Amino acid sequence: MLHGITGIDHLVIAVEDLEGARETWGRLGFTLTPRGRHRDMATGNYCIMFPSDYVELMGIIDPDLPDRGLRERMARNGEGLDRVAFAVRDADETAGALKASGYDIRGPVDLRRPLELPEGEVEPRFRLILLPDGAAPVINGFICHHDTPEIVRRPEWLEHPNGVLSIASLVAVAENPAALAATWQKLLGPGCTVLTDDTLTVHTGDTAIIFVTPDHLSLMYPAVADDEFPPPPFMAAATFRVADTAATAKVLDDRGMPYRLDPGGSIQTEPADTNGLLVGFES
Q: Cα–Cα distance between 12 and 255 in angstroms, integer?
């Protein structure tokens, strides 16, 4: 891919109740890290780590501090998949390449996130590149490089009872997906997009982002009521790779987590049960 982008780094899921979300995603069979907080910001998080990508549950823990627009976006869209971060090999090289391509970026910006461990506080460090509005449409994309990956990828945090290995795909909704193709080709390269009728698939390393119309979303997930989602554009679903969906289903059953099986054998939750996001599992 262009600009040194290598794939998806992580998903940011906005939640109203951070501790409640921790409990929900634990019932989904995920292992969560201890709680972190963003230095000098209103937000805290729990992360769900995989070998090559991860999920960040983000909520407000200190309302007197700035939140980079999180409360405003939740007031408009509700809970759910709020942003998607891309991974890069080198933040400075990517910043230079983006500027050379005409992007009015901000960064790299240093970010520290104190993390509360039983043995004491540690501080993972990241470098962010903030893209201009519309550069990564619908998914509110930005770029994240880890300066201290060894802190956040402890072996015990990479093992999940539900058997999840990585993020397989995302589904995003737009009125005219085809109109987004040129923008994504500029960011990731001409070979990253596939347009089929009114569906645009953007390939980002091992994870596909599938842009569909509202009508197509209803065909994909007929059991989900339209009023469970905000007006487009928005991100509707995240599907995770597992080794064995039957084993995953047993974990959900044991933990009392409701779900349904689609005709192809994949597992799906109701957005109302999982912080506004349809969560899927497939092998």
A: 24
Could you tell me if 116 and 36 are in contact, meaning their C-beta atoms sit under 8 angstroms apart?
A: yes
The count of domains in the chain is 2
Domain boundary among 107, 135, 157: 157
Q: Residue 204: is its pLDDT beyond 90?
A: yes
Strand 115-117 relative to strand 125-130, pairing: unpaired
How far, in Å, CA of 222 to CA of 157, rounded? 35
Query: Could you read off the pLDDT of 255-270 as tens digits, one per residue?
Result: 999 999 988 889 999 9
Cα of first residue to Cα of last residue in the chain, in angstroms, is 26
Q: What span, in angstroms and rounded, lies between the C-alpha atoms of 77 and 25? A: 20
Q: Which residues pair with residue 125 across a beta bridge? A: 112
Tokens of 126: 């990241």
Structure token pair of residue 59: 């909520």
Chain-wide mean pLDDT for the chain?
95
pLDDT in tens, 157-186: 999 999 999 999 999 999 999 999 999 999
| Residue pointed to by tokens 């070979």 | 191
Structural domain range at position 211: 164-282
- Does residue 137 sit in helix, strand or coil? coil
Of residues 246, 262, 244, the one with CA closest to residue 254: 246
Nearest in space to 203 (alpha carbons), one of 168, 158, 254: 168
DSSP result, 169-230: EEEEE-S-GGGGHHHHHHHH-GGGEEEETTEEEEEETTEEEEEE-HHHHHHH-TTS-GGGSP
Q: How far is CA 95 from the centre of its chain?
A: 22
Indicate whether 121 and 168 sit together in one domain.
no
Tell me the residue type at 135: A
pTM of the model: 0.96
